[in-house]
């Protein structure tokens, strides 16, 4: 599904080169829910933005369903982003002037899809994520958790290969966070969605199948959940403690 091979990324500030990702390689399989953790500044957002090519990377390969996106032109990239990727951001990024239902439909409208199919897909997603009762409201009229579930529905409506989420629960209280994580789990279980989620929250991460831990631009460790979620939560906490970074940063 997603293969990242030998990814290098540096930033230049005042002509000083600063390496952020140093030879990062990993894979995410279809239908997998994978988390990325690591101290603040370890390169998590840089990794996500490199995968979507919102920022350029120095070298390496990124294969999305065997297509290398490293060399795509801007217009081809726009199609990949709309059709093959779904995005969920910390600050929701909903359009205030559109209803919840209309926000969910945006990727289909951009893709010029059939209206009847679009409406039926949007209605199904509203039902799946428990937001049918608010679909005619506007973003300012709903809670943070409802906004983020709207964003998850929007990310899924084009049936993308991969959902990229950067701190999706970062602005939410624990109850709303749980509802958003439940939405991801439903997407995985019922739509076979593949989810790649950056989070600093061990509780949210403990619902993942696997967690990649970044440190100083390298993969420090990969932890797999074998069975019990609360055991996985404990081993994530332990790993982050040993790693020393501020886990809440
Ligand atoms: N546009 C940029 N220019 C220069 N340095 C940057 C830029 N974006 C991020 N960085 C630096 O790269 C490092 C990794 O940042 P980031 O990927 O945002 O980390 P994380 O999401 O893990 O907190 C940080 O030290 C950050 O200051
Ligand atoms: Mg970040």
UniProtKB/TrEMBL annotation:
GO cellular component: membrane protein complex
Domain ABC transporter: 2-241
This protein's record includes keyword Nucleus: no
SMART domains given in the database record: AAA
Keywords tagged on the record: ATP-binding, Lipoprotein, Nucleotide-binding, Transport
Protein's UniProt keywords contain Cell inner membrane: no
InterPro entries tied to this protein: AAA+_ATPase (IPR003593), ABC_transporter-like_ATP-bd (IPR003439), MacB-like_ATP-bd (IPR017911), P-loop_NTPase (IPR027417)
Family: Belongs to the ABC transporter superfamily.
Protein name according to UniProt: ABC-type lipoprotein export system, ATPase component
């Amino acid at each position: 599904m997603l293969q990242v091979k030998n990814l290098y990324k540096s930033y230049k500030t005042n002509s000083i080169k600063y390496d952020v990702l140093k030879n990062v390689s990993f894979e995410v399989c279809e239908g997998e829910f994978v988390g990325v953790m690591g101290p603040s500044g370890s390169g998590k957002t840089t990794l996500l933005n490199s995968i979507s090519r919102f920022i350029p990377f120095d070298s390496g390969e990124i294969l999305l369903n065997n297509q290398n996106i490293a060399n795509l032109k801007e217009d081809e990239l726009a199609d990949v982003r709309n059709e093959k990727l779904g995005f969920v951001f910390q600050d929701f990024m909903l359009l205030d002037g559109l209803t919840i239902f209309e926000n969910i439909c945006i990727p289909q409208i951009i893709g010029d899809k059939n209206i009847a199919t679009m409406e039926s897909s949007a209605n199904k997603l509203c039902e799946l994520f428990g937001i049918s009762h608010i679909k005619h409201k506007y973003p300012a009229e709903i809670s943070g958790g409802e906004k983020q579930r709207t964003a998850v529905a929007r990310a899924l409506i084009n049936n993308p290969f991969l959902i990229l989420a950067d701190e999706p629960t970062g602005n939410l209280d624990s109850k709303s966070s749980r509802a958003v994580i439940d939405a991801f789990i439903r997407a995985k279980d019922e739509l076979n969605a593949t989810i790649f989620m950056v989070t600093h929250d061990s509780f949210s991460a403990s619902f993942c199948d696997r967690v990649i831990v970044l440190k100083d631009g390298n993969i420090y460790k990969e932890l797999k959940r074998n069975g019990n979620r609360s055991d996985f939560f404990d081993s994530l906490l332990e790993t982050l403690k040993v790693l020393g970074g501020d886990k809440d940063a």
